[in-house]
Known about the structure:
By secondary structure, the chain is an all-alpha fold. Helices cover about 70% and strands about 0% of the residues. It has 4 helices and no strands.
Amino acid sequence: MSSQNIKMAIADMFEGLSRSNFENFCDELLHRKEGPRVTRIRVEGKSRLEITNVLVSTFTETGAVEVAEEILRGIDCNEEADQLVRNTTGKH
């Protein structure tokens, strides 16, 4: 899958999250123990599209999907995590 399609899938997933879940996602992104770490200035007050770009530029396309899935499951957004995986891998 091309990076543009992965970015679109991640951005679409963010659009489906409630404001509260999006804020929880950003908070969890900041507090991940594994590297590379994302700095607060790159996350706070950013739009959903900007966070998509942060994920892809920090973790690469494949890594961005894996990190997003991990965080989504950690904040009990399992349906959104499943949808993201389906949209980026073609697995149904």
